[in-house]
Amino acid sequence: MNDLLERVRAMGHRLTAPRRAVLEVLARERAHLTPEELHRRARRRYPKIGLVTVYRTLALLERAGLVERVHVEAHCKSFALVRLVGAHHHRLICRDCGRVEEFSDCALESTLKSLQKRTGFAIESHQVEVIGRCPECQ
Amino acid sequence: MNDLLERVRAMGHRLTAPRRAVLEVLARERAHLTPEELHRRARRRYPKIGLVTVYRTLALLERAGLVERVHVEAHCKSFALVRLVGAHHHRLICRDCGRVEEFSDCALESTLKSLQKRTGFAIESHQVEVIGRCPECQ
DNA sequence: GTCATTGCAAATCCTTTGCATCAGC
DNA sequence: GCTGATGCAAAGGATTTGCAATGAC
Fold first, then answer.
1. Is B49 within the bounds of a domain?
2. Do A92 and B119 touch (CB under 8 A)?
3. Which of A96, A107, B52, B67 has a CA 20 to 30 Å removed from the CA of B6?
4. Are A23 and A45 in contact (CB under 8 A)?
5. Which residues get their CB within 7 angstroms of nucleic chain C?
6. What is the domain count for chain B?
7. B28-81: per-residue pLDDT in tens?
8. Beta bridge partners of B70
9. Residue A63 lies in a domain
10. How much is the pTM?
11. B122 to chain A nearest CA, in Å?
12. Alpha-carbon gap, residue A18 to A27, rounded angstroms
């Protein structure tokens, strides 16, 4: 949590109460949340916070690479904190509670290499999302 | 193309001119398109078609599993035809022209097995998206 | 002829912007 | 105190809905 705050500050941004509230919610809940859900929860910590600020904070955190969109739901409206910061990472998501676990060992290298050979594409990146049910929800 | 039309009809839906137009565009362009782009292109085949019908057709095709959302862009607004129908499949997408290639050999079985063991999640599905530049765009 | 489908307009969301005020540093 | 950040209201987009007219079967 403190490292998150430090990161925001290090990028030259101010550490304001609304930003703290959003980051605290994201860090505490290990799930992906829509801006609306995030707003509702952040309000419990800082009642004055407006939905607009949540949007702006998410945009800031996304630019900073601290938060990413999750693609399980139809419209991809929710966000989750990036934990394996900076590193190559993917997500394992509980379809019931939305809980997010990260992992980095996707073992796709050889698959990508043969794809590249077969299609002629110059492969630049990839994303994996695994859906399941977490131990608690089973 | 004809198999697509047959599928729609087989599900008990009517084969109307607007639906043909949308399917033709999706089948011809090997890329992902937003509802708006799709509308613009479909209009060339059937000028009366409204944007609303494009939305409704996409919803129908998505329910039928013939079309899926693509997640490259920030808001996941675009759709692409599913080619390896029914089968397990993933996408290789050109970041410049949006062209989509499908593949099914992701070789993730052992990765998922060990993930499942490590996290206790009951894994149900996964999706992979690979981004790169196609031969033409390089 | 029947009933699903369409197009239009309007409603409804979701997200972004403009602007005066506020608060970190 | 300077300047970035906030909240509010309003604008802007995207998507959905209501309804009468149309067209597939």
1. yes
2. yes
3. B52
4. no
5. A 9, 14-17, 34-36, 51-52, 55-56, 59, 77; B 13-14, 16, 18-19, 46, 48-50, 52-53, 56-57, 75
6. 1
7. 998 999 999 999 999 999 999 999 999 999 999 999 999 999 998 888 999 999
8. B78
9. yes
10. 0.90
11. 5
12. 14
